[in-house]
Each structure stands twice: as C-alpha cells, then as structure tokens.
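Final report, Chapter 2: Outcomes

The project's central promise was a pipeline that accepts a single protein chain and returns its three-dimensional structure in a standardized token representation, suitable for archiving and comparison. That pipeline is now operational. To close this chapter, we reproduce one record exactly as it appears in the project archive, with the input sequence first and the structure output second.
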Amino acid sequence: MNVDGMHQQVLSFLRPLQGEALELLKRLVEIQSGSRNKPGLDRMAGTMAEVLGTILPQVLIVPFDDHGNMVQAATSAATAGRKGFLLAGHMDTVFPEDTTLTTYREDDQHCYGPGVYDMKGGLVVGVYALKALKHLGMLEDMPVTFLCNSDEEIGSPASRPWIEEHSGGCLAALVLEGGGLNREVVTGRKGRMGLRLVVRGRAGHAAKGGPKASAVLELAHKIIALERLNDDAEITLNVGRVEGGIGPNTVSERAEALIDVRFLTPTGQDLARQQIEAIVQTANVSGTSCESLVVAGRPAMPQSRANRGVFFEARRQARLLGYELPEELRFGVSDANFIAGQGVPVLDGLGPIGDQDHSDREYILKQSVVERAALVAATLIGLRRDQAKVLFDKTGSFLHKGTAKSMLVCFGLMCNPFY
C-alpha cells in the first residue's frame, strides 16, 4: 500500500464516523469520574472495556480497592510478548463527585463538558485510531497495548507501578493528553516534586514578649528564601498552602507549608532538592527546627533525542495528512513523565485540540477528534514500518534492512529537524 493511498484510506474511514465518535465522547463525559469517585470510575472502566472489546482480542479490567478500576487492552501481537507500542490515557477528572458541572454540549465547532479535553477526548482518539488500524487490516500483527488509568489527576499513586511495568521495554509510547491550540504535540514536560515543610517551635503566651521560638515566624523566613529559588529557565517553585498556630495570643508551636516544585531535567531536580534542603537546615529563629517530606512527584521528561525521533515520524505523517505539526515543552506533568523515566521514547499531547481544562469552560474543537485519530493511526503505522526495517544481533548492534535514516527514526535517535 503506498503512503498516499494509506492516508486516504484512514481519512475515508474515519470522517464518516465523526458523529459516532462524538456520541462516545458524550457518553464518557457524562459519567462522573472524579479521581475519588470510585463507583463512577468503575463505570468508566466498564464502558472503556466494552468499547475496546469490540476492537481488541484481550481486554482486562484491573481492579483496585482504594482507587477506580483500570483497563488494559492489547492486540494479539502484544499478548504474544512482542515488543511494540503503548497508548496511554486517563479516565479520571479533577471535578469531584458533587460537582454541578456534569453536562456535555456542542455547538458548530466545539464540544464542552467536564473532562472533554482532559482527557476523555483523548480516550476517544485512541479508540478510533485502533478502529482505523483494524479496518486497514494492520492491527492484528501490530503489537499495541492501551492502558487507561483512573488516578492521574491525583498523581497516579496506584497506577504508576502498573504503567512503568507495561511501558518498560516498549519501542515507543503515545500519550493521549490534549493537544495545543496550534496543533502542538508534547516532546517534553517539566518534572514535579510536591513537598511538605513542617516547622516546630515552642508554645508560649504571646503577652510575655521577649525572644520566642515561633514556628510561624520561622516558616515566614523559609517561604521568602524558597520563593527566591524561582528560575524559569530551570526551576519553578510555589508555596501554595500555609497553616500554623492555634490562636493570636499563643506562640505557634507548629507550622507547615505545601510546596510545588517544577524542573526541566534530573539535574535540575537534584539542584532544587539541594537548595531546598539548605533552607530547611538553616534556622533563622532560635529554638525552631524544620523537616521536609516529599509527598508526590514525577520525573522530568526532557525533550530528548528519543522523544523527538518519535515526533519527527508524527510530523512526517501530519504533513502527509496535509498540515504542519509543531512541538512544545509543556510545564504541566502527565503519565508521560513516568514512561520517559523508563527510557522509552514518548510523544504526548496527541489528544484533541482544545483549552480551558480544569474549568467549567473546558472545550475541544470537534473536527480535531478525527484529525488526531488519523494522526495516531498513521504514526503507529509509520513507527511499525520503520521498526520492521531494523533487526538486532545478539550483541545488540544494528543489522538493518533499509536506509540508515529509517534505522535512526525507528529507535528515536534521529535529531535532524528537516526529516
């Protein structure tokens, strides 16, 4: 099948299905699936398993006691243990179970609703990309696994080991978070570290005056020092919540702060941790002490040669589909950070084009659902084709059939922006 013919077949198959895809989107959006709403998330998992079961031969609902159930689906080639590709998306939203934002709606150009962009639209893109591959007869022999988790918006505490297990050793991963308004896809993300600072002082009556071991006063010094660490080129830090003391007439015995730290590279993470620890260990107020606790985090996802190698393939496919595909470094985190931490080439932001996520104004562009599904399908075909041109000998060196360019693209090592 020639390239132009393949792209035309993908588009000819998907375009008439836009209405059907939006019906699925409506169905998913109107399932309330806040990260703490286990019944709603279990319903989401059941719905995704039902839909994926019409496409793929193996679909498992993975049960969790304290979090929503999750879904693992795979092609025959993937279940046979062949190295291949990962699709990943999350089913939870930031909107709690008691939210009043529960309705899906459309106008001529947009779809609106809780999670329509972040990221139930991405789940629909993944479903219809797989449908297109099945229609073309390419899916059975392509090793693809699709993971749908239920706790991404709270840091993926339960699903992280599961994602890392199934992504390790993959040739490449495509993550279906929402795309940028100019069609951007994500080749890098800052990492995140969530910290709790706890300061301890000595209680006393405020009226006595004189020196006082006030935990609140010490924390104030530390907040000023911490905020001075901000360096947008590498580190961003925000002290987002502060509490302490029991009343205005009592010297505070305890105070604490919750801190969000972002960094571009593992080196930046180490530097931030060292600088924060120096501040923690320096007491400005006599009689106080401080400790820091890491309560959450994701590794950095640098814009590596490997990630950009997958991007070059996606950009090539986008050009064949008739448009340019920009890349971006995104400061927010996703499960792509965990996948990149496994050394797997990963491209993110392949979901529909939209904006205003985490708000009652959240939306996507209707036409972008089919556009992105075609892009994901074509990118998987391109990656699979290039992978088939390369073999490994027993020592791990390359034995290739085809051009050196194909070898480099396949394994994410190519960095020529004009490919």
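Archive annotation: Residues 191-298 form a domain with the Alpha-Beta Plaits fold (CATH 3.30.70.360).
This record, like all others produced under the grant, will remain available to the consortium after the project formally closes.
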